[in-house]
Amino acid sequence: MSEDALEPRSLASYPYVVVRVACTLCPHRQGTYRLARLAAKFGPEMGLDEVLDRIAFDCPWRPSRRLRPGNQYVPKCKASFVDLEQPRRPPDLPPGLMGLRVVKGGCE
Question: Per-domain residue ranges for the chain?
Answer without folding.
Answer: 3-97
